[in-house]
Amino acid sequence: LRVVVLISGGGSNLRALLEATRDAEYPAHVVAVGADREAEGLAHAEAFGIPAFTVPYSSFPSREAWGDELLATIAEWQPDLVVLSGLMRLLPPAVVEALAPRLINTHPAYLPEFPGAHGVRDALAAGVAQTGASVIVVDTGVDTGPILAQERVPVLPDDTEHSLHERIKPVERRLLIDVVRGIADGSIGLGAASTP
Ligand code: GRF
């Protein structure tokens, strides 16, 4: 299964997926890594010898223009699946519609609880005893797509946003690796196939 991963930040989830693909038995491989800015996480692609590209959001006059360039760049790699793993940017509907349902996202909360860009902070502020991690199919909403996998993660009394996020990420990584494997081996169906 040909996978393109999109990031914005440190890419620790990307690194975990890249490490999983080192196993010859793992039925997916990352063909390229993209970012909407000069993301630190692109260094993981370089370390694994995987092509990386940036489509800098700030270089475009609109979200739609950025999205069109991003979609064209992604299409060059002919992916079977696009993974958003720490992409901190909403994709324009045209991009989602072109890629879905072969477009998934990891989110550091137990959706539909705490969607959006600050799921960890919001869970902490809400004072809940547990939050979670989720992997979903991206739709044109914000973290509203079909849930492919999710797992609860406890919130501890002295948690900070960072400590809670660091407890969530390992769960996210495991779910992501399992979901990508499931999509590759057919045990997870994504609904009607679409061609990017
Ligand atoms: C992950 O928790 C992801 O779900 C969220 O931002 C974090 C990115 O972490 N959107 P990293 O860049 O993979 O380290």
TrEMBL record:
GO terms for molecular function: phosphoribosylglycinamide formyltransferase activity. The keyword Transferase applies. Keywords: Purine biosynthesis, Transferase. It catalyses: N(1)-(5-phospho-beta-D-ribosyl)glycinamide + (6R)-10-formyltetrahydrofolate = N(2)-formyl-N(1)-(5-phospho-beta-D-ribosyl)glycinamide + (6S)-5,6,7,8-tetrahydrofolate + H(+). It is an enzyme of class 2 (transferase). Pathway: Purine metabolism; IMP biosynthesis via de novo pathway; N(2)-formyl-N(1)-(5-phospho-D-ribosyl)glycinamide from N(1)-(5-phospho-D-ribosyl)glycinamide (10-formyl THF route): step 1/1. (6R)-10-formyltetrahydrofolate binds at R63, M88, R89, L90, L91, N105. It holds the Pfam family Formyl_trans_N. The record marks D143 as: Raises pKa of active site His. It comes from the Bacteria. The keyword Transferase applies. N(1)-(5-phospho-beta-D-ribosyl)glycinamide binds at G11, S12, N13. Belongs to the GART family. Catalyzes the transfer of a formyl group from 10-formyltetrahydrofolate to 5-phospho-ribosyl-glycinamide (GAR), producing 5-phospho-ribosyl-N-formylglycinamide (FGAR) and tetrahydrofolate. This is Phosphoribosylglycinamide formyltransferase.
